[in-house]
C-alpha cells in the first residue's frame, strides 16, 4: 500500500487514475527497458538519465533500464522498433526532426509514421553561438558581416541535412545572406571548433550556450526567451521568423495497447510535472514541452509540413505532388 | 593453391586480388557520380589511389614474377568447417535465438577444433563445459550488462 | 597545499575499495574482446546516482582505466585488440606470445600501463587548464594531418610488400566510408541495405579482422595455440622491470605522446598508440625487429594508451568536450548529478574534481598487482585450455562481443564477413594491419580534410589552411621525418649492428646494467 500512497501523491496520475480505472495501478509491474537510439553521453542519453532518476517515483516504484542502440543517426534503432516486444515494457527515445528528415531523404529502413511517439517531453531550441571573445556582439553584427563578405562566415554544426544545417539555411534565407555550413561529427566536435575559433560561429543548440561557459549565444529559435538564458533574444524578436530545434520524446513499438500507450504518456507527463525534474532540465538549458498522446497527431502534422517545405527549398527532396505521406 | 607450380612462381592470388581491387575502385568511382561534392571527393581520390597502386602491383608482378610465402599446411576441411559453423552462427542468432544458436554452434566448433580421439567421457566433459560457458555468458550479458540478446523463435 | 587535503579525502577506505573493485571489473571487462569500457561505465552510471559524486566518479574512472589496460590481454594472447587504442599492442604482443613469451608480454604491459596512467593522471592533476587549450588549437586540418601521420605506419606494417600494404590501406579507407556521410550527408556504398546506413563499426571490424584469421588457423592444426615454456617462470617481474628501466626513455616519451594526443577529442584514443609505436620504432636501435615480438613495441603502445585516460579527461573536465566515448558517459553522469564542467570545476567544485583525480591515481597504482594477477590467470587459462574449449570460447566472445557494442546483429555479420575477407587477403600477402589503419583513420582524415576545405574556401586561403598553420607544419614535419628517416638515418651516424636475438633474455638487476 506504500506504493499506492506514493502514486496518489503524484498529482497528474490521480487524474489518470480516475479516467482509466484500476488498470493504471498495474502498469508497470516490472522494470521497463528504455532504448536510446544514440550512443551514451549525448543529449538524448542525458535527458533520459534525468528521467530515469525520477521514473520509480511516478511509475509504481519500478525502475527504468537504459540501453543503447546507436547507428545511422538513430535509424538503426527506429527501423527495428516495430519488431520489438509490444507488451509495453520496451520503450524508445524518438527525435524530431530526425524521424521526419531521415525517411524523407533516403531509404532509412522505416517511415516517419512507423515511430509511435506517445510523448515529446522537451526540446532544445536552435541557437547561434559564438566564442566568448568573438567580435560579434549581436546577431545583427554577424549578419552585417556576412552581407559584406558573402560566404566568408562559417557555421559549425552537427552533421549534414541535420537540424543544425536546416537552421543555417533558414538564417541565410530569412536574413538574405550567404554563409558556409561546416558539418562536424556530433555537437561535441562542433563545440570544440566553435570554442577554438576554427569557425566564425556555430549553428547549434541553446544547451551549448548554457553548458559551455566559453561560448556566447547571440539568438535562440524559441518562441520566448529561455529561463536559463534570460538575456538572449529570440529570432522572432530580431525580426527573423524562425522557431525550431530538436524535440525528444518516447515511442513504443506497434501493437502496444492504447491503454498502455496512454499510461506511458502519463508517466512521462508526471515526471515533467515534478518540480525537481523541471529544475534540473531547465538548469541544463532544456525546454520542457507537454506534447502528450492527445496533442501528438496535430504536432506531427505541423512538423512534417514544416520540414518538407524546408527540405524542398534545400533541394533535398522533389516537390511533392500527391499527398502520399 | 596457385602459387606452387614452376620455379619463379607467379603471385597469381595477389594478381587476382589486384584485379578485384581495380574493379572495386572503378565501382566506387561510378557510385560517387550521384553524390554531393563534399561526399564524393574523398572516396573518389582513395579509389583513384587504389586503382593506381593495384595497376602498378599487377604490372610489376607480371613482369617480374615473385611468389609470396606459401600458406601454412593444415586441414582445409577443418578451416571450411569453422567458416561454415560461424556463418550459421552469425546468420541464425537473430532468427532462432541467441542462446540456442550459440549452444549448438559452440558444440559444433568443439567438433571442428578437437583433433584427438573422441571418448564418451571427453565428449560428456566438453558438452558440459559448453553448456556452462554459454549459460554463464548469457547470464552475464543479459542480467549484469543489460545487453538485450536476441530471443528469436526458440530462445 | 589544500590540494593535498583532497588526497586524504580520496584515501578513505570506501574510495579505495571502490577504486579497486573498479580496476578489477575494468580489467576483466577489457580483457574480453568486444566488452568495452564504454559499456562497463554506462552500466554502472545508475549505481553512482546514489553515491557521493566523488566516490561514484572514482569508481567510473577506475573501471575505465582498468578496461584500457585489460585490452592488452586479448591483444597479446589472442591477437584481438578490444579497443582501437590496443591495435599496436598486437603487432609485437602476439608474436611474443606465440614464441612463448606471453607471460613477459603481459607483465610488461602492466608496468607500461601503470607508467602511462600515472603520467596522464599527473598531467590532469597539474596542467589540465593550460593543456585543454591544445584541444582548442587543433582544427580540422590538424586532425587530417594527424590521421596522415598515423597512416605513415603502413610502410612499417606491410612486411616487405609496400604496394600490397598501400592497397590494403585504401581498402580500409573505403570501408570507413560506408554509411551516411557526416560531411555531405550522402548515403554511400550501402548496396541499398538500410542495415549498412550506420557504417562499419570499428571495434567489431577489429575483432573480425584480427581474431577470425587466428581462429581459422587454430582449428587447422593440432599444434598448441601458443608455445609453452616447460619451466614455470612466475610473473617474470624482475626481467620486465629491467626491460622497462632500460627503455625508460621510450616509456616516458610514449606516455607524453599518449597524454598529448589523448587530449584531442574524438581521435586521441585510437591514434595515440599508433603514433607512440611509430615514434618508438623510428628511434629504436632495434627498429628492424618491430613487428616480430619486440618488447619495446608493447611498452610504447601500452604506456601511451593508458596515458590517454588522464589526457582524455582534460578536455572532458575543463571544456566539457568528451575526449573518448567513456568520457562522454562520465560527462553525462556528471551533468545528471548537477555538476557543471568548465574551468570552475577546478575552483568552485575542487573537492569533487581533485578527489576524483587522486582516485584515478590510486586506481592506476592498484592496476599493477591486479593486472599481474589477472594477467597470470588469463595467460594460464589460454595455454592450458584444450583447443576444443579454447576455439569455441574465443569464437563465442567474438560473436557476443561484436553484438554487444551496439546491440546489433548486423555488426556481428560484418565482423565475421570482414574476418573471412581478411583471412583470404592475408593468404595472398595483404596483411590486416594496413586495412585496419585505413578503417580507423578514414573518418578522421575525411572529415578533417573536407571541413578544412570548406573553411579554407570560405576564407579564400586553401593553401594557408592546409600548409600555413603552425601546428599543421609541425605535424607535416613529423610525417616527413617518419617517411624519410629510415632512408637518411644510416648516413647520419654509423650504427652498431643491432643484436639479432630477441631481447628477452633474463637480466637480473638490469636496473644498473645500462
From TrEMBL, chain A:
Concerning InterPro entries, the annotation shows: BUG, Bug_dom1
Top-level taxonomic group: Bacteria
- The answer to whether keyword Signal applies is yes
Keyword Kinase in record: no
Keywords annotated in UniProt: Signal
Q: What is an example of a Pfam family matching this protein?
A: TctC
Q: Where is the signal peptide?
A: 1-25
Family statement drawn from the similarity comment of this UniProt entry: Belongs to the UPF0065 (bug) family.
Q: What is this protein called?
A: Tricarboxylate transport protein TctC
Native species? Caenispirillum salinarum AK4
Supply the source organism's classification. Bacteria, Pseudomonadati, Pseudomonadota, Alphaproteobacteria, Rhodospirillales
From TrEMBL, chain B:
Pfam families membership? TctB (PF07331)
Residues of the DUF1468 domain: 16-150
**Record-linked InterPro entries:** DUF1468
- Coiled coil regions in record: none
Q: Say if the entry is tagged with keyword Glycoprotein.
A: no
Keyword Transmembrane helix listed: yes
Q: Which domain of life is it from?
A: Bacteria
Q: Where are the transmembrane segments?
A: 12-29, 41-63, 83-109, 121-141
Keyword annotations: Membrane, Transmembrane, Transmembrane helix
What is this organism's lineage? Bacteria, Pseudomonadati, Pseudomonadota, Alphaproteobacteria, Rhodospirillales
Name of protein = DUF1468 domain-containing protein
From TrEMBL, chain C:
For this UniProt record, the keywords arranged alphabetically read as follows: Membrane, Transmembrane, Transmembrane helix
The question of whether Transmembrane helix is a record keyword is answered with yes
Pfam families annotated for this entry? TctA
For whether the record's keyword set contains Membrane, the answer is yes
Give the stretches traversing the membrane. 20-45, 57-78, 104-127, 134-156, 162-184, 196-216, 256-277, 356-379, 385-405, 412-430, 471-488
Segments forming domain DUF112: 17-437
Protein name (database record): Tricarboxylate transport membrane protein TctA
Q: Which organism is it from?
A: Caenispirillum salinarum AK4
Amino acid at each position: 500500500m506504500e506504493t499506492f500512497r506514493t502514486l496518489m501523491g503524484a498529482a497528474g496520475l490521480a487524474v489518470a487514475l480516475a479516467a482509466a480505472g484500476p488498470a493504471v495501478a498495474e502498469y508497470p509491474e516490472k522494470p521497463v527497458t528504455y532504448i536510446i537510439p544514440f550512443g551514451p553521453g549525448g543529449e538524448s542519453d542525458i535527458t533520459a538519465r534525468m528521467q530515469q532518476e525520477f521514473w520509480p517515483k511516478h511509475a509504481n516504484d519500478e525502475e527504468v533500464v537504459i540501453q543503447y542502440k546507436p547507428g545511422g543517426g538513430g535509424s538503426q534503432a527506429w527501423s527495428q522498433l516495430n519488431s520489438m516486444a509490444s507488451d509495453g515494457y520496451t520503450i524508445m527515445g524518438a527525435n524530431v526532426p530526425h524521424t521526419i528528415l531521415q525517411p524523407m531523404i533516403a531509404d532509412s529502413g522505416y517511415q516517419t509514421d512507423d515511430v509511435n511517439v506517445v510523448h515529446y517531453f522537451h526540446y532544445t531550441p536552435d541557437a547561434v553561438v559564438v566564442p566568448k571573445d568573438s567580435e560579434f556582439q549581436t546577431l545583427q553584427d554577424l549578419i552585417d558581416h556576412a552581407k559584406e563578405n558573402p560566404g566568408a562566415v562559417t557555421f559549425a554544426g552537427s552533421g549534414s541535412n541535420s537540424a543544425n544545417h536546416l537552421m543555417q539555411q533558414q538564417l541565410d534565407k530569412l536574413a538574405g545572406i550567404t554563409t558556409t555550413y561546416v558539418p562536424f561529427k556530433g555537437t561535441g566536435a562542433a563545440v570544440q571548433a566553435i570554442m577554438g575559433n576554427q569557425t566564425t560561429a556555430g549553428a547549434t543548440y541553446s544547451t551549448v550556450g548554457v553548458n559551455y561557459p566559453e561560448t556566447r549565444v547571440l539568438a535562440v529559435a524559441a518562441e520566448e526567451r529561455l529561463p536559463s538564458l534570460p538575456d538572449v533574444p529570440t529570432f522572432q524578436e530580431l525580426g527573423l521568423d524562425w522557431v525550431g530545434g530538436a524535440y525528444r520524446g518516447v515511442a513504443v513499438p506497434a501493437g502496444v495497447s492504447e491503454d498502455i500507450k496512454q499510461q506511458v504518456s502519463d508517466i512521462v507527463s508526471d515526471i515533467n510535472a515534478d518540480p525537481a525534474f523541471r529544475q534540473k532540465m531547465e538548469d541544463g538549458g532544456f525546454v520542457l514541452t507537454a506534447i502528450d498522446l492527445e496533442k501528438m497527431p496535430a504536432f506531427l502534422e505541423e512538423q512534417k509540413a514544416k520540414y518538407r517545405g524546408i527540405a524542398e527549398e534545400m533541394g533535398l527532396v522533389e516537390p511533392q505532388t500527391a499527398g502520399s505521406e | 593453391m596457385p602459387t606452387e607450380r614452376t620455379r619463379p612462381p607467379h603471385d597469381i592470388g595477389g594478381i587476382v586480388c589486384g584485379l578485384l581491387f581495380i574493379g572495386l575502385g572503378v565501382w566506387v568511382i561510378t557510385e560517387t557520380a550521384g553524390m554531393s561534392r563534399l561526399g564524393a571527393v574523398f572516396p573518389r581520390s582513395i579509389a583513384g589511389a587504389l586503382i593506381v597502386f593495384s595497376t602498378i602491383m599487377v604490372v610489376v608482378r607480371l613482369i617480374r614474377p615473385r611468389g609470396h610465402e606459401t600458406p601454412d599446411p593444415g586441414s582445409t576441411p577443418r578451416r571450411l568447417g569453422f567458416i561454415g559453423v560461424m556463418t550459421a552462427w552469425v546468420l541464425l542468432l537473430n532468427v532462432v535465438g541467441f542462446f540456442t544458436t550459440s549452444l549448438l554452434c559452440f558444440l559444433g566448433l568443439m567438433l571442428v577444433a578437437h583433433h584427438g580421439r573422441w571418448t564418451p567421457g571427453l565428449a560428456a566433459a566438453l558438452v558440459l563445459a559448453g553448456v556452462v560457458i554459454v549459460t554463464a555468458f548469457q547470464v552475464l550479458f543479459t542480467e549484469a550488462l543489460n545487453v538485450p540478446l536476441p530471443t528469436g523463435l526458440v530462445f | 597545499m589544500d590540494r593535498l587535503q583532497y588526497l586524504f579525502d580520496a584515501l578513505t577506505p570506501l574510495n579505495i575499495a571502490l577504486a579497486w573493485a573498479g580496476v578489477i571489473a575494468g580489467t576483466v571487462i577489457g580483457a574480453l574482446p568486444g566488452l568495452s569500457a564504454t559499456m562497463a561505465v554506462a552500466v554502472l552510471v545508475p549505481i553512482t546516482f546514489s553515491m557521493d559524486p566523488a566516490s561514484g566518479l572514482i569508481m567510473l574512472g577506475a573501471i575505465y582505466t582498468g578496461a584500457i589496460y585489460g585490452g592488452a590481454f586479448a591483444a597479446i594472447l589472442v591477437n584481438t585488440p578490444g579497443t582501437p587504442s590496443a591495435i599496436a599492442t598486437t603487432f609485437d604482443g602476439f608474436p611474443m606470445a606465440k614464441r612463448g613469451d606471453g607471460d613477459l608480454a603481459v607483465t610488461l604491459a602492466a608496468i607500461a600501463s601503470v607508467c602511462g596512467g600515472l603520467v596522464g593522471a599527473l598531467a590532469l592533476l597539474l596542467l589540465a587548464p593550460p593543456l585543454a587549450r591544445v584541444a582548442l588549437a587543433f582544427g580540422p586540418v590538424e586532425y587530417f594531418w594527424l590521421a596522415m601521420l598515423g597512416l605513415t605506419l603502413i610502410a612499417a606494417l606491410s612486411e616487405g610488400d609496400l604496394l600490397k600494404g598501400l592497397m590494403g590501406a585504401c581498402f580500409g579507407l573505403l570501408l570507413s566510408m560506408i554509411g551516411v556521410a557526416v560531411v555531405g550527408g550522402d548515403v554511400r556504398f550501402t548496396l541499398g541495405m538500410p542495415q549498412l546506413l550506420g557504417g562499419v563499426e570499428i571495434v567489431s571490424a577489429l575483432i573480425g579482422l584480427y581474431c577470425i584469421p587466428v581462429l581459422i588457423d587454430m582449428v587447422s592444426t593440432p599444434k598448441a595455440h601458443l608455445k609453452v615454456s616447460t619451466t614455470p617462470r612466475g610473473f617474470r617481474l624482475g626481467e620486465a622491470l629491467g626491460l622497462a628501466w632500460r627503455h625508460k626513455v621510450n616509456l616516458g616519451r610514449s606516455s607524453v605522446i599518449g597524454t598529448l594526443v589523448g587530449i584531442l577529442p574524438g581521435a586521441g584514443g585510437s591514434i595515440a598508440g599508433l603514433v607512440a609505436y611509430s615514434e618508438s620504432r623510428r628511434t629504436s636501435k632495434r627498429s628492424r625487429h618491430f613487428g616480430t615480438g619486440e618488447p619495446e613495441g608493447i611498452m610504447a603502445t601500452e604506456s601511451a594508451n593508458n596515458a590517454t585516460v588522464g589526457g582524455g579527461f582534460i578536455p572532458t573536465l575543463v571544456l566539457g568536450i568528451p575526449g573518448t566515448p567513456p568520457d562522454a558517459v562520465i560527462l553525462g553522469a556528471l551533468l545528471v548529478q548537477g555538476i557543471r564542467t568548465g574551468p570552475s570545476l577546478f575552483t568552485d567544485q575542487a573537492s569533487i574534481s581533485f578527489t576524483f583525480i587522486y582516485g584515478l591515481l590510486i586506481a592506476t597504482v592498484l592496476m599493477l598487482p591486479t593486472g599481474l594477477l589477472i594477467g597470470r590467470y588469463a595467460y594460464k587459462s589460454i595455454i592450458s585450455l584444450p583447443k576444443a574449449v579454447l576455439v569455441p570460447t574465443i569464437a563465442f566472445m567474438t560473436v557476443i562481443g561484436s553484438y554487444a557494442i551496439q546491440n546489433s546483429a548486423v555488426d556481428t555479420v560484418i565482423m565475421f564477413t570482414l574476418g573471412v575477407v581478411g583471412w583470404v587477403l592475408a593468404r595472398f600477402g595483404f596483411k590486416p594491419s594496413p586495412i585496419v589503419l585505413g578503417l580507423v583513420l578514414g573518418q578522421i582524415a575525411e572529415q578533417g580534410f573536407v571541413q578544412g576545405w570548406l573553411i579554407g574556401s570560405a576564407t579564400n586561403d586553401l593553401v594557408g589552411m592546409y600548409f600555413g598553420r603552425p601546428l599543421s607544419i609541425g605535424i607535416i614535419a613529423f610525417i616527413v621525418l617518419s617517411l624519410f628517416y629510415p632512408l637518411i638515418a644510416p648516413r647520419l651516424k654509423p650504427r652498431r649492428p643491432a643484436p639479432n636475438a630477441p631481447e628477452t633474455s633474463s637480466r637480473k638487476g638490469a636496473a644498473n646494467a645500462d
